Amino acid sequence: SFYYGTFPAGFLWGVGSSAYQTEGAWDKDGKGPSIWDAFTHKKGKVFRNETGDSACDGYYKVKDDIQLLKELKVNHYLLSISWPRIMPTGIKTEQLNEKGIQFYNDTINSLLENNITPIVSLYHWDLPQVLQEKYGGWQNISMINYFNDYANLCFEKFGDRVKHWITFSNPWAVAEKGYETGEHAPGLKLGGCGAYKAAHHIIKTHAKVWHSYNNTWRREQRGMVGISLTSGWGEPVDPHSQMDRDAAERYIQFHLGWFANPIYRGDYPEVMKNYVGRKSAQQGLGTSRLPTFSLQEKTYIKGTSDFLGIGHFTTRYVLQKTFPFLQVSSYHTDHDLAELVDPNWPAPGPTWLYSVPWGFRRLLNFIKTQYGNPLIYVTENGVSETVQCTQLCDEWRIQYLKGYINEILKALNEGVNVKGYTAWSLLDKFEWNKGFSERFGLYHIDFKNKNKPRYPKASVDYYKKIISANGFPNPREVENWHRKAMDTCSAIHQHLAADSLITHMEMVTEIVLPTVFTLCILISIVLLIFYLRNHS
Questions:
Q1: Chain segment 84-95, per-residue pLDDT in tens
Q2: 41, 51 in Cβ contact below 8 A?
Q3: I need a labelling partner for 354 at 20 to 30 A (CA). Which of 199, 338, 523, 525 fits?
Q4: 16 by DSSP, 3-state: which?
Q5: Cβ atoms of residues 169 and 226 within 8 Å
Q6: SS (H, E, C) 395-450
Q7: pLDDT for 431 beyond 80
Q8: Is 1 exposed, middle or buried (0-12, 13-18, 19+ CB in 10 A)?
Q9: Is the model's pLDDT at 5 over the cut of 80?
Q10: Measured between alpha carbons, how far is 69 from 64 in angstroms, rounded to an integer?
Q11: What is the predicted pLDDT for the residue at 207?
């Protein structure tokens, strides 16, 4: 049932985005190539071979996008820094890019001038390509020191103003999609080993960066360093079946626990160690494919998070499924489970993203119980659409946000320590291997128009009302928000249609008229030659 009430005073409301998905300017002003530049430039890696080369042109539209944030009345904006934009090769001693540093300085200053708190992620997947080519990226232990140098540069240059740092955004996807399935950059398919190795190095890197901040910068800058972990919720198909309950527990431990357990409890989850260890032994391997932490490393890693960032989108039903013994190892067969969805769950966009608000509350309560009720910031939560025609009246996103934010409110009343919420995302943007076919934005972008204009969807109006009321005051008011949001979007839709027509006419003018003019000249020349021949 829906719960009417408000969030505690001082609760933070925001929106987020990431560098590669929005900035564009992939090779401008001294920026070095990232693994996503290299990956998207290879044919067949991304839907329709689209790239983030220009993305939302965010590099050139900082002022415009900050206006959108002001319009939304958010308290904070979650952005990421592009490592190769400020350190082109990823190696501090080789080269720094002052123009890149200036760009982030200007962005941070503009946010603060407009009373918007920057929450900054150091890594949202755009590893410098040089580090991938030279060392194999996150497969190599040397990344720990290179990333620590980069993080310290960011603390030095921006830490006087940035007080909320995220080391890694969704490292699960970095490891699993980058080094297991190869769906994401760098596109490696190192089945059964690659993801575990990448994750192992990422966890050690996170800990090193936290200790760097703690020892060198904390006293002076008084900020916080955390990590942002994305996880779905796993619900047992049959809650009375011990096997299904165990399978659902494994689902969470192989997603969230993989990273959270070492940071909060000092080691990988027992169930993960047991399952990967047993499967490795069955394959005749002398050691587990899941690497181990030394006693010293466990102590060093435990407690290295001032807050836990949580990204959450959807839920799955989970049941026990034993995979036959396979010589070919895989992260996906290591946990012996199958995932199901309820066909009645709303799925407005892609097939993976079902709207199941109650799963969020259960996930938050799981975190409270498992990890000692840490300080939580929700760092990513939202829904996309895949419709090809423009949809500004995004009724489903309103319902999604309303449902999921309400479950956070219920979790708060149960004692979960959530301090802020970040809707994902500010803009429609480049969605990795899906290109521009999935749209998460509160603001629609017309990518066909060279100016990439932004248009508010109905969800902008609705989210703005939640922010100003700090929750859901009463049924009548909340119903009113919905009606007004839908009225507003209808008017903006007409404006967008007119703009699209003008854009279409401009394209016609730019392409057709010069073509016709050229043809006329050619025909005239041919006729003139013909005329002169006849008369000579």
A1: 999 999 999 999
A2: yes
A3: 199
A4: strand
A5: no
A6: HHHHHHHHHHHHHHHHHHHCCCCEEEEEEECCECCCCHHHCCCCECCCEEECCCCC
A7: yes
A8: exposed
A9: yes
A10: 9
A11: 98
Question: Are the C-beta atoms of residues 348 and 440 closer than 8 Å to each other?
Answer: no
Q: Is 431 a catalytic residue?
A: no
- Of the listed ranges 20-34, 305-319, 480-494, the least confidently predicted one is 480-494
Number of C-beta neighbours around residue 136 at 10 A = 18
Whole-number Å distance between alpha carbons of 106 and 135: 33
User: CA 385, CA 441: separation in Å to the nearest integer?
Assistant: 9
Residues with Cβ < 8 Å from 513, sequence gap 6 or more? none
Q: Which residue has the higher pLDDT, 59 or 536?
A: 59
Q: Looking at 380, 407, 431, 438, which residue is catalytic?
A: 380
Average pLDDT value for residue range 272-285 = 95
Which tens digits make up the pLDDT trace of 213-230?
999 999 999 999 999 999
Q: What is the CA radius of gyration of the chain?
A: 25
Q: Which residues contact 288 (CB under 8 A, 6 or more apart)?
A: 273, 276, 277, 280, 281
Separation between Cα atoms, residue 487 and residue 492, nearest integer Å: 9
CB 407, CB 391: distance < 8 Å: no
**Domain boundaries along the sequence of the chain:** 5-434+456-473
Q: What is the pLDDT of residue 517?
A: 76
Residue 512 has what pLDDT? 65
CATH architecture assigned to 5-434+456-473:
Alpha-Beta Barrel (3.20)
Distances (CA, A) of 239 to 244, 249, 319, 400: 7, 12, 10, 25
Contact predicate 425/16, CB 8 Å? yes
Kindly list the distances between the CA atom of residue 117 and the CA atoms of 12, 61, 107, 162, in Å, as whole numbers in the listed order.
Answer: 10, 19, 11, 8
Q: How far apart are alpha carbons 96 and 483 in whole angstroms? A: 51
Q: What is the pLDDT of residues 39-78, one digit of tens each?
A: 999 999 999 999 999 999 999 999 999 999 999 999 999 9
Tokens 């936290």 belong to residue: 210
Kindly state the DSSP code that residue 47 receives in the 8-state scheme: G
DSSP label of 213: I
What mean pLDDT is predicted for residues 400-423?
98
CA pair distance 305, 298, nearest whole angstrom:
14
